[in-house]
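Re: [help] complex structure
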Amino acid sequence: MSALRLIAWNEWRLIRRSAVARAALFMLLALSAIAAFTSIAHRDESDALRARFQAQADAEFDGQPARHPHRMVHYGHFVFRPLPALAAFDPGVDAFTGSAIFLEGHRQNSANFGDVRQSSLLARFGQLTPAFVLQVLGPLVLVFIGFGTIARERESGTLRFLKAQGIAARTLLAGKALAIGGIAALLLLPALLSLGWLVLAEQAPLSGALLLAACYTAYLAFWVAAVVAASAIARDARSALMALLGLWALTTILMPRIAPDIALAATPLQTRLETDIAIHEDLRRIGDSHNPDDRHFAAFKAATLARYGVTSVEDLPVNYRGLLAMEGERITAQLFGEYAADQSSRQRRQGALATGFGLLSPAIALRSASMALAGTDLDGHQRFLDQAEVYRYAIVQGLNRLQAEAVTYADDGSRNKDPEAARRVRIDPRHWHDVPDFTYRAAPLAERVQAAAPGMALLLFWLIAGVFTLRFAARRIAEAL
Amino acid sequence: MTLPDPSQTARGTAASTSTPASAPLQPIEMRDVELTRGSRTVLSGLSLDVKAGEIYALLGGNGAGKSTTLSALLGFLTPTSGLIRVCGYDPAAEADAARRRTAYLPENVALYDLLTAHENIAYFMALAGAEPERAAIDAALDAAGLQREARDRRVSGYSKGMRQKVAIAMAVLRDVPVLLLDEPTSGLDPRATADFNALLGGLKARGTAILMVTHDLLGAADCADRIGFLAEGRIIEEVHPGEGIDVLALHHRYGERSAA
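Output below.
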């Protein structure tokens, strides 16, 4: 057996015989297994629940009786975002952003029903998922198991003894890294098994799962290098532990919480209320369809009459109220789109800035890559919002078109006075059946990999930094003896 | 106390201990070695050599340079000038080759507390490239005088003397041409010291060159072929105990030098 493998094997033996290390390892493995099971179960349950709610919302929309089309515009429709299979590994922002949107005319609502709003504050700290266990708790266990791997050898004198046996510092550190790496591999095992299960049983994309596994492997490999290097460089085991705990707290707890705040301060977002007020003011500026003196709608009316070659709206072959509703919706949707694009662009800048903090924290780099690969990042949520808005616009304009074409202008104007007119404006419910159901199209893998690329590049940077730190530590050890 | 069969030891099983072609070479050779640590000169023109089958005891007061001499021979420290060779190899430039031919017994023997004596020896021997049978390890531990009932216990409960016996057993098993000892009998009782000296005699008979750093003049006079007195980084006096020296006078002189 080579010296490197001997050193690693001996380290494993020492870890096996340490009650503290055994307990830490057992607890994390148990936690990791529980996280994998509960996370898969939670994702399956949530996805099934959302599918059931979606089917129920579709059925209720389709089951509406004969109504005026504009009543249906305000009756609205719920759409739910299905959860990608890999959300069981890393649910990302799903718990915070909400998964359902109520679609209605003249309004663009926010998503609702995030898990965090329905659970305790504990969920804000971090849900028990394989991703959380590996991102936050995995490094902590590696720190507790490995902080003394070299420092204790130095303190007890075995390091000098090993050197006297002709063991090179580089071989020693590589052997120790192999041993702590073996522990990291053990920590990864439940998560890898859960990824395998998601690929085999839940049709998660194999390439996405493999890339996720590679990212988490690189992350833990960095921590292995950091633990061994700190243990080699520090004056004693206690100093190594303090330094590593500081690094862990700073990079996995503090930075991931500070980075979004800094990004928010650098690129502030408007609140929902501010946006609503701004949109309302813009709408007033653009025009009011109920005001006969409004310049925009006066021009629209003139253009419509000219297009149909008539002189009054009563002579139009279509219901002018329906056309007005379509024009009003077009204007509000365009305005919503502009505000949404602005918000989305600010959020993207925030995201890019927050990911940039990955240069200071490997946990941020990993989170960014992990959420993107799992399809649970903010881009995935934005994609859902965009598709929901396209769907909302299509439904609302379809109903407005029905008002224009299936309801007469005369009936529409007298429906509140004439019961017969009121009956006639309630059109056949088969029209609601004809409205297509909402189908969310998840981003293709290539797009997700592209979104994950900055995070993956930062992880690679950390891995290389870890290797260089190990080499530096090996030189320090060689010089110190 | 008898040494194990050489065929069961590292020298008997590993071919890697051959010396460079230009034999005969001194196992330990130091010529005009100067070594500074920071602004302090620790070794100042130190010259000594230890022949195969010879025990050399190096005595000196605190700070005389005894431990530095061992560190330089182990390649842990590089001399500022002068020549150091272990079986013909420069321990600083050819550390691996030199260390493969050297066994080292520190004053405070460092072992893995969670391992037994057997496991410690097997591990360190494996790192040195040898995989002795359990019987060979037992024979070496017998030679070192470690009680049988203690051998499969974790060494965390061992006394200093017991730890030294484990390290001695390792040195015996490695059977290398050079043995460096740092205060080897400091933790041993008189009986164990006598046993240890007998063990050194066995190693000497096999041709091992032994350099022993010690404060124990009486012990050194008992087993060493030569005793060198180190002061201010160089040998200031060398005596041959076998030639009928007056140990008491030597002790008196040595004590004065240590205090100086």
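The CA atoms of residues 177 and 208 of chain B lie 5 Å apart.
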